[in-house]
Design brief:
CATH topology of chain A: Rubrerythrin, domain 2
Number of domains of chain B: 3
Radius of gyration of chain A: 12 Å
CATH architecture of the largest domain in chain B: 2-Layer Sandwich
Order of helices and strands of chain B: EHEEHEHHEHEEHEEEEHEEHH
Number of domains of chain A: 1
Strand content of chain B: 25-35%
Number of strands of chain B: 13
CATH class of chain A: Mainly Beta
Oligomer: heterodimer
Structural class of chain A: mainly beta
Structural class of chain B: alpha+beta
Distance between the termini of chain A: 33 Å
Shape of chain B: globular
Strand content of chain A: 35-45%
Number of strands of chain A: 5
Largest sheet of chain B: 5 strands, antiparallel
Strand order of the largest sheet of chain B: 11-10-9-12-13
CATH architecture of chain A: Single Sheet
Number of helices of chain B: 9
Radius of gyration of chain B: 19 Å
Number of helices of chain A: 0
């Protein structure tokens, strides 16, 4: 597991070593977070809201 | 097979594709398109046999597909299929020209003409965005007043095609519609989407999935739609009209299938991956 910080509340977030970019994690503070790669390492950012052009 | 899977949000379907591809011994590479950038026409530097497009954002799915195609990659579905699916007027135009039954549909560019067309179709009518998904902004208008208000709401959206009003008859379907999948040269599985509480039968809006009985007529229809729209993997939405039989409402170029797998116990990802290997060999 990788220990990251929630970009909203600053709290700890445990992320699986094998997590893929695009995974969405709901943090205990209520924030929806998205895994992405920054400088070759796993990182978190606030997940994108459902867009007008989203869907099947 | 060396396979790329282009995606932006990691849903159940994308995870399942990765898992099933690895079970089949494919070398699978996730392509996270939100952070993907390259020169048009540049070589991606990897010898991928195919890329499956799974972007949930229509814009990202289409544009990343065109970019990947410019780099010499075969993307499924291809960019032109995505365009044919995403723009509902194009979908319906191609289908009706080929003799496929569609809902009676009018296009107008002014409210006055849209009201005229709605009266011709007969209320209630359905107004929907030219591009859109999950039943978003699909609304039923019961008279001129409500249709006018809905068109005003459309005017003040940021929809790309907000100046075109797409008005359809309200099809008297049962409390369900059909989602049938085409995968390669077969239509192996589908679901009924049942909603007794809402005329909109999108599973995103709470419709319940039930296993679909695929009769020969429906299978033949699905393959005809595939011939018209193109592509490799399609989710076709079909209404059952009491008088006209099957009516094709929409075609989805990046279909979701979690509920289809669950209620049919059918491995869509595995089937798709095996079919894709056949296509690549040809």
């Amino acid at each position: 597991m990788v220990l990251l910080k929630c970009p909203v509340c600053g709290g700890d977030v445990q992320v699986d070593d094998n997590a893929l970019p695009g995974e969405v994690i709901e943090h205990e503070c209520g924030a929806l977070l998205e895994v992405y790669m920054k400088d070759g390492k796993l990182a978190l950012r606030v997940a994108e809201q459902i867009g007008e052009d989203w869907g099947e | 097979m060396r396979l790329g899977v282009a995606y932006d949000v990691l849903r159940w379907e994308e995870r399942d594709l990765f898992s099933e591809a690895r079970k089949l011994g494919y070398d699978v590479r996730p392509l996270y398109i939100k952070d993907y950038a390259d020169l048009v026409g540049n070589s991606i530097g990897e010898n991928l046999d195919a890329v499956i497009q799974r972007g949930v954002s229509h814009s990202r799915a289409l544009i990343s597909t065109t970019l990947l195609e410019s780099q010499g990659l075969r993307v499924f579905n291809d960019s032109l299929t995505l365009v044919r699916c995403e723009n509902k007027t194009l979908t319906l135009s191609l289908l009706t020209k080929s003799g496929v039954n569609i809902p009676r549909t009018a296009i107008a560019f002014s409210k006055e003409k849209a009201l005229e067309m709605a009266r011709k179709l007969g209320y209630p009518v359905v107004i929907k965005p030219i591009e859109g998904s999950w039943g978003r902004m699909v609304a039923k208008a019961v008279d001129d007043d409500s249709l006018y208000s809905l068109m005003e709401y459309q005017d003040y959206t940021t929809l790309q095609f907000r100046t075109a009003y797409m008005i359809q008859e309200f099809v008297r379907k049962p409390d369900r519609d059909i989602r049938i999948f085409v995968i390669g040269d077969e239509a192996p599985v589908g679901i009924y989407r049942v909603n007794k509480a809402n005329w909109k039968t999108n599973t995103a809006l709470g419709a319940k999935a039930e296993p679909l009985k695929i009769d020969p007529e429906l299978r033949e229809l699905a393959m005809k739609v595939k011939d018209v729209i193109g592509g490799f993997f399609l989710g076709i939405d079909v209404f059952e009209d009491p008088d006209r039989g099957y009516i094709v409402n929409e075609v989805n170029g990046v279909p979701e299938y979690k509920n289809t797998v669950r209620v049919n116990n059918f491995n869509v990802s595995g089937f798709l991956l095996k079919k894709l290997a056949e296509v690549i060999k040809k």
